[in-house]
Amino acid sequence: MSWPVLYAQLVGANRHSTSLGKVWLSVLFIFRVMVLVVAAESVWGDEQSDFTCNTLQPGCENVCYDQFFPVSHIRLWCLQLVFVSTPTLLVAMYVSYRNHSDKKRLLQSSGRAGLLSNKGQEEDLETLKKRRLPVAGALWWTYACSLVFRLLFEGGFMYALYVVYDGFQMPRLVQCDQWPCPNLVDCFISRPTEKTIFTVFMATASSICMVLNMAELSYLVAKAVTRSLCGQKERKTCRKSSRVKTQNKTNQKLLVSA
Amino acid sequence: MPLTPPAEPDPEPKMNWASFYAVISGVNRHSTGIGRIWLSVLFIFRILVLVVAAESVWGDEKSGFICNTQQPGCNSVCYDHFFPISHIRLWALQLILVSTPALLVAMHVAHRRHVDKRLYKLSGRTNPKDLEQIKTQKMKITGALWWTYVISLLFRIVFEVTFMYLFYMIYPGYKMIRLVKCDSYPCPNTVDCFVSRPTEKTVFTVFMLAVSGVCILLNIAEVFFLVGKACGKHLHTAGDSTMGVWIQQKLCSY
């Protein structure tokens, strides 16, 4: 189980998403997963081995590292990316459930009719698999929920990173007096500037993803509202035209009788 | 000395440059000839060289950075002062940012195909062969796609130049020096610090910058090619378009 496997799963689910959803997926994989794997992991690679304290006391470095880095940035980002990607799988699960129930209905109806040939049935099943479902009804609700969850996870993890590390900047020096350090010792963090640059980069990419998710949610809501308004208008014009039709009929009858 | 078994090849595929190549090279079908040359130069002379050679040159940049002092922390602090961001990471970011405008073109092509499919269905041509043909046909770079393509080229040029400028700002002169002098806390006084493999790093820095320059030239040439092609098309249809007539008049006046 690795990033390319997750990518394959998400691309499959992406077929039923909006254009903004597809842009979001590209931003996620190119500017976050790719940068994490190709660049950030090597910056944080020596974070513990190069964490040096100004003391010869054994155990002091371990204890101080643990105090200042309860969870490494890299692991936090990995968790964030995994959590943020999984709501899309909700949509994939709903789509496969819909396909499964439609397939059942198709097989039952063709069984009852007994008219469709084997080839015709296969073609229908193939179109069922390949079709793209419109984002409406229950799928709309599933999709909107997945967007809300994505936003919550993104915001939650960014807040957690900010709280745990007191901001997005990595200091060069931290002072530690945990036992067994003999007194207040200076401990030096490796590559703090490079780490700050990548932390800011990843936070920016995360914010861009949040903006894309919010835009997608607004777009879905606007689409649903316009669809319901159009539906209402059609019903009104239908009622109007049926009223006009009945009026015309009564007029004709009156004319005929006169 | 006990023999260590050879390292097993990593069984799990990682998200790496190879998967990135797969994503980006899909755009190749809709590029011009110069665009395909640019993509090959990018992958062979930049990404491949980065992964195969440059990463091992910079691999021990921190462990091999040694200061003439026993003061703990002095090495770390001086390294951080002189190398705020490693060359390798700068190049990786540059390559990712420079390749992504090509995805604008891929998105536009996908949108156009979607629109064509809809039109086909509306006009009643639901033959699966016709729909397959839409997928495989090569899009002509005209109209809105021309503008998307040119904008993506301009973005590429801007990103390349920006990164070259950043490089010059952070590491003025492009040359890697052998010795730096550092007096940041907790170094007790001005200490000499020695950079590992400075000459090899200079060679690779110059190589990567030269290839970056070549890529900028290819992008500029591609912009001129597209503009020239568009002008040529307008001149051909000069009878219909006023722009073509205007250009023809200007050319004839010289």
TrEMBL record, chain A:
Keyword Transferase among record annotations: no
One GO CC term, this protein: connexin complex
Domain Connexin cysteine-rich: residue ranges: 153-220
Subcellular location field: Cell junction, Gap junction; Cell membrane
Segments traversing the membrane: 23-40, 74-97, 138-165, 197-222
Top-rank taxon, per record: Eukaryota
Protein keywords: Cell junction, Cell membrane, Gap junction, Hearing, Membrane, Transmembrane, Transmembrane helix
Single GO biological process annotation from the record: sensory perception of sound
Location (main, coarse): other
A Pfam family that the UniProt record links to this protein: Connexin
Keyword Membrane annotated: yes
Xref: InterPro entries: Connexin, Connexin_CCC, Connexin_CS, Connexin_N, Connexin_N_sf
PANTHER family to which the protein is assigned, alphabetical: CONNEXIN (PTHR11984), GAP JUNCTION BETA-2 PROTEIN (PTHR11984:SF46)
Similarity section: Belongs to the connexin family.
Quaternary structure and interacting proteins, as annotated: A connexon is composed of a hexamer of connexins.
Task performed by this protein: One gap junction consists of a cluster of closely packed pairs of transmembrane channels, the connexons, through which materials of low MW diffuse from one cell to a neighboring cell.
Protein name in the entry: Gap junction protein
Gene assigned in the entry: LOC115021703
TrEMBL record, chain B:
Source taxonomy: Eukaryota, Metazoa, Chordata, Craniata, Vertebrata
Record function comment: One gap junction consists of a cluster of closely packed pairs of transmembrane channels, the connexons, through which materials of low MW diffuse from one cell to a neighboring cell.
Gene Ontology terms describing biological process: cell-cell signaling
UniProt subcellular location: Cell junction, Gap junction; Cell membrane
Transmembrane portions of the chain: 37-54, 91-110, 144-171, 204-227
Protein name: Gap junction protein
Residue ranges of domain Connexin N-terminal in the record: 56-89
Species: Cottoperca gobio
Quaternary organization: A connexon is composed of a hexamer of connexins.
Pfam families: Connexin (PF00029)
